[in-house]
Specification:
There is one protein chain. The chain is built from 6 helices and 15 strands. With about 260 residues, it is of the alpha/beta class. The strands form 4 sheets. Strands 2-1-3-7-10-14-8-9 form an 8-stranded mixed sheet, with helices on both faces. A 3-stranded antiparallel sheet has the order 4-5-6. Helix 5 packs across helix 6. The longest helix is centred in the first third of the chain and has 15 residues. It is globular and about 45 Å long.
Length: about 260
């Protein structure tokens, strides 16, 4: 069994200030430390792409190159692959008719202005040939269906989770799970901690705190439920916007346990 991870954090610091983010690289480093210190990963099994590292820039081509590399390194069902992304997300018009609300979710590499986005359709095709357990975490706007997995779980009220089969596509690998920071129609928010003088994604910060509180031993469903309960009453910005985490799965019953 091997544990492999790809962690991506993009602040877009080389682009116009209007599109820059402030906490994505910080979040990526915290995820890296968590995998290393608590979840059985090692330095030589974690690939880290951040736009403050000149040698490992999260360009569109490099992201795809590493995705293909980690696929080749996790070939057994018992292997474990984690993908974490913190950066911009957006939506585009759906052109193949596979989206319920007519829009595809996309993520934006650091060179998206020249090379374009990475779409949920492309990520889904890549996922279909994965053999191992997969946990994907996206702290980005409009990320609810970013992996186009067939089953979606959305929290409504305490004790009530909406379960939707959003795709008729059947997947051979029943061990693929995606935690998304917001629904396809929502923004994901950064907050600024005055005491730390640091911005971070509120979703990532909450997720890491829950993992710490549960001593890094929790089912994916319970983690999702706890995230959902916390975000159920949160409001952001002057518009009092809400942010609704989403769990997607290749199976009807997500039964994977996060543990060392």
């Amino acid at each position: 069994m091997v544990n492999i991870a790809l962690i991506i954090g993009i602040n877009y610091s080389k682009l116009d200030i209007s599109v820059q983010l402030n906490g994505c690289i910080y979040d990526a480093r915290r995820i890296y430390k968590t995998l290393l210190d608590h979840l059985g990963f090692s330095t030589n099994t974690i690939y880290m792409l951040t736009d403050d590292n000149e040698e490992q820039q999260p360009t569109k081509q490099r992201i795809w190159d590493v995705l293909e590399k980690v696929k080749k390194e996790t070939t057994r069902p018992e292997d474990e692959l984690w993908i974490y992304y913190s950066g911009h997300g957006n939506t585009i018009f759906d052109t193949n008719g596979d989206e319920k609300y007519g829009r595809d979710s996309v993520i934006l590499p650091m060179d998206y202005l020249k090379q374009g986005y990475i779409s949920d359709d492309e990520i889904h095709v890549w996922l279909r040939s994965i053999q191992c357990k997969v946990c994907m975490i996206f702290d980005s706007c409009h990320s609810g269906t970013i992996t186009d997995l067939p089953w979606n779980f959305t929290y409504r009220e305490p004790g009530e989770v909406l379960i939707e089969k959003v795709s008729e596509i059947e997947m051979d690998n029943q061990q693929i799970y995606t935690l998304s920071s917001s629904s396809d129609s929502q923004l994901s928010w950064e907050v600024y901690n005055q005491k730390q003088k640091q911005s971070y994604g509120d979703f990532t910060n909450t997720l890491l705190r829950i993992l710490e509180e549960t001593k890094y031993n929790i089912t994916i469903m319970k983690l999702f439920e706890r995230l959902s309960v916390e975000f159920h009453t949160k409001q952001f910005g002057e518009t009092k916007a809400i942010q609704t985490p989403t769990l997607s799965s290749s199976s009807r019953i997500p039964d994977w346990r996060i543990q060392k």
